[in-house]
Amino acid sequence: MGYQTQHVKIAYRFVKVLPETDSASIDFDRVNEEFGSSSNGVIVAVEAGKNNEFFNGDHLKSWKKLIDSLESIEGINSAFSITEAFNVGVNDSLKELKLVPLIDSTKSIESQGEMLKMSLANLPFYQGTMFTEDLSVFMIMVRIQEDLVFSKKVTGILKEVTDKVHAYEAETESVAHLSGLPYILFANAKKMTEEIQLFIVLTLLVTATILYLFLKSFRATFFSLIVVILGVLTTFGLMGLLGVQLTIVLTLIPPLVIVISVPNCIYLINKYHAEYKVHGNKVLALQRVVRKIGYVTLLTNITTALGFAAFILTDSLTLVDFGVITSVNIIIIFILSITIIPITYSYSRPPKERHYKHLDKKWVRGLITNLEVLVQYHRNWVYVVTLAVVIVGIYGVSRMQTTGKLSDDFSKNDPVYVDLKFLEKSFGGIVPLDIIIDTKKENGVQKASTLKKIEELKNQLKGEAILSNPLSIVEFVKFANQGFLGGDPAKYALPTRQERQFLLSYLPKTGNSDLLRSIVDSNQQQARIIYQVADIDSPEMKEFYNRLQVRVDSIFDPERYDITITGASVKFMKGTKYLVDNLILSLALAIVVISIIMAFLFGSAKMVFISIVPNLIPLLLTGGIMGLVGIPLKPSTILVFSIAFGISVDDTIHFLAKYRQELRANNWEIKKSVIIAIRETGVSMFYTSIVLLFGFSILMASNFGGSQALGFLVGITLFFAMLSNLVVLPSFLMSLDKWVNAKNFSTTIISGQIHAEEEEKRLEEKEST
Fold first, then answer.
1. What global pTM score does this model have?
2. Which phi and psi angles does 529 have, rounded to 5°?
3. pLDDT at residue 754 tops 50
4. Which domains does the chain have, with CATH numbers?
5. Are 421 and 177 in contact (CB under 8 A)?
């Protein structure tokens, strides 16, 4: 597994949520194949500075030097800005429109500043796309080779781009802003690399510290860390073996493995110390650890693994990877803990009194005693508080919002987020949005009716503040018309009917030029309108797309035109909804699977109800907190429910396993058995819950907002789950003693295990005598 870790790679793309067969994925891939990708651009926006120093000779020279240096980077197709821009003229001899560069290459660029400024003022084609109307911000569009955008090489390319832009900033004392999908991916990957290392180190340190504070034993802490570290190693090894790439979702697995490993170790070590404290026989204590706690730990780990395995049933590749890696590693963790802990203790010296003194800590025992009193004498208050929690939870859940956007996981102060918002304010957005108009006829794009409809749609969308200026065949025709009629800005408009055919004959053919290839297909049947949309929340984005669809349908008759609305923005919005739906489905499947296991173990539908409900209450409370505090339901936070439910059920199984053992030992007296079960399992449950709380709280150190929220929510959910399993679950058992009786345990696997354990105990006592 250590060898396989070298094959683990960072995913240089956004989380792949939608299946390949989804219509949004099919449309996105088809458009990119036919017209080329609009998602391979890195945007560099530079503020002009005071007194519009941008057009000064030295500044303009530095600008051109930056452009040339960017184009020299291996993997960059082009770097386009106003110094590479052109005007349109007419070549009368060839009867062709010609492109006239705004910068004369035969003259020094320093002397052309004022002329360039005057030219730009007369070219509406570039306004709002390459520079702002007030000439305060200028843009460079850097195009990366499409086959490199989602590869490891993009890291080196973007680092060079960033370094050269920063050098330009230092030289000119300008302020530059970088954004675009590849750049956000680059920032994402960089943060993931840094944070996964930080999370592993911090989680190990925190869990080791808490383990030592609780167990007061370097030996116990060291043996537990062996299990934990090997668990992390097998996690990365399995990823490398299966070729799974790390995404922001999968970076949660190593910390998750660490905090899941620790409860196994605590239960095993506590049982070993408790057994040794009773009879002082090390070998006998280890045997009972494996036979008793080992059996229960196997059940809890299988239950947790099956809970996460529910993700495998979804169609999302990312969730399938998460389910496979997590569920397999939980079983590996069980094997590691049930072998390493007993083996290492068998070679070590017997524990001394100070090693198991932690079992009788006054404050912990006081807490457990208070819980016993609460369950025995104040159950009415337990139910009142539980009902209040449920009501608050339901109200909070009703206020929950589902959202998702590219910048979700960046803090408001992060330079990536700041630059993104600056570009949105200056140019409208950076997330690609494509509208494909299929006229269903060859050369249908050239028709005046089609051009007018595209212009009408563009005019209707002018009021959408979240959109950039569009790029389409209409803009090129208007640009060509202006050049054809002498360059008058007032002529930047669609030509009249008489002029149109003459002008179109002067346009370069799509098949022979890159000029129109990205917006018109080869036989002039399909037209592409390219927009950039702001990165906004999914509900707002959904409302926008509904408005857009209505406007498109009102202009382009569905009987005559086929319209496709696609782009990274559409794919991400649909992917967010798909992910939320699948995660809700996987949680429901996990509850069903675990309910079946409970029914199989206890042989009773009543016990399924009693064991599942206490674990649903914390989830409801967490949902309520999210709704009341304003934490949205999004891809990075919805995992809290599946993670918390899968882990919290472990406490239920531990409690009920001890409870069922005490039932037979106490002549099926439920109340007495419940109290003993609280005493026996309460300490371990408290220790493990504290470790889980602090372990997941490490995620709050993340720079990703979603990870911060996830750490807080999982930690608090598991803490409430502990209280629910130590208060609500015992209260149910004691209140429903007539409803849940000995028959619920008499014909199950559990009863067979009890008989085997008791027979074994009698044999051991006979041998010792």
1. 0.75
2. -105, 120
3. no
4. 216-398+572-768 (1.20.1640.10)
5. no
Tens digit of pLDDT for each residue in 687-744? 777 877 887 777 777 776 667 777 888 888 888 888 888 888 888 888 876 555 555 5
d(CA 266, CA 691): 10
pLDDT band at 523 (very low <50, low <70, confident <90, very high): confident
Task: Transcribe 398-443 into DSSP letters.
Answer: HT--B---TTTTB-TTSHHHHHHHHHHHHHS--EEEEEEEE-SSTT
The H or E element containing residue 59 is helix 57-71
Query: Using one digit for the tens of pLDDT, what is the confidence trace for 211-223?
Result: 787 777 788 888 8
With beta carbons less than 8 A apart as the criterion, state whether 360 and 367 touch: no
Distances (CA, A) of 201 to 206, 250, 480, 690, 706: 9, 17, 61, 18, 20
Distance from C-alpha of 482 to C-alpha of 526, rounded to nearest angstrom = 24
H and E: helices and strands count for the chain: 24, 9
Locate tokens 């290839």: which residue?
A: 517
479 touches 508 (CB < 8 A): no
User: pLDDT, tens digit, for every residue of 425-479?
Assistant: 888 888 888 899 998 888 888 888 888 999 999 888 888 888 888 888 888 888 8
Cα–Cα dist 765/769, whole Å: 6
Tell me the Cα Rg of the chain. Answer: 33
Question: pLDDT tens, 232-261?
Answer: 899 999 999 988 887 777 777 887 787 778
If we measure between CA atoms, which residue out of 117, 146, 119, 141 comes closest to residue 129?
141
Residue 566 pairs in a beta bridge with: 434
State both tokens at 682: 């309460």
Question: In sequence order, what DSSP letters do the residues of 722-749 get, joined into one string?
Answer: HHIIIIIHHHHHHHTTTTS-GGGGTTSH
Token couple for 130: 């390459």
CA distance 474 to 504: 12
Please state which of the ranges 147-161, 372-386, 731-745 shows the lowest mean pLDDT.
731-745
CA pair distance 457, 603, nearest whole angstrom: 64
Q: What is the reported pLDDT for 635?
A: 65
Beta bridge partners, 99, equal: 88
The pLDDT of residue 611: 79
19, 25 contact by CB (below 8 A): yes
